[in-house]
Amino acid sequence: MKTENFRFRIYYEDTDAGGIVYHARYLVFAERARGETLRMAGFPPKELAENRHIGFVVRQLDIRYYDPMELDDEGEVRNRMIEEKAMRVIVEQEVFNLTKNKVAAKLKVELVLIDCKTLRLCTKPPEDLRMALRSVWNGEYPPEELQKQIKENNRLAALS
């Protein structure tokens, strides 16, 4: 299965007193990568929340650190969907240090889709969202036909 990647660079704000990336910053890099994946699938997080009143939240997260990143290192988060069920997605994310050519951290993240108004699990995720995420997390952009459907669904949701 192909991965979808998100590149970034390490700045002073990412490091601790010892000069290495503070452990919680890896969660930030991973979150940004998941947000960009949603955007590439045609579902920017803000649009999902405002127009469709749904959003993904982290239910469970496991992280393992391997090799610390340092100031000015260039990195990449590699996303891969490993499981998808009705209301949840499990994503494997690898934070890779391109400067050192080493894995810095690996995450396994369980995401659930919630109704932003009630903060409860969605009973059924929109099919266009599921199809688009499958496409992107399998390393493809959503097919043109699906992109048209997504735009129309987003337009209709904004009107309601």
Q: Which class do the helix and strand fractions yield?
A: alpha+beta
Distance between the termini: 37 Å
What is the share of helical residues? 25-40%
Overall 3D shape: elongated
Under CATH, the homologous superfamily reads Hotdog Thioesterase
Under CATH at level 1, the class stands as: Alpha Beta
| % residues in beta strands | 35-45%
CATH architecture type? Roll
- Total beta strand runs: 6
Mean pLDDT: 88
Pattern of helices and strands = EHHEEEEEHH
Might you state the CATH topology name? Thiol Ester Dehydrase, Chain A
Specify the biggest β-sheet: 6 strands, antiparallel
Number of helices: 4
Rg, please?
17 Å
What's the number of structural domains? 1
The low-pLDDT segments are: none
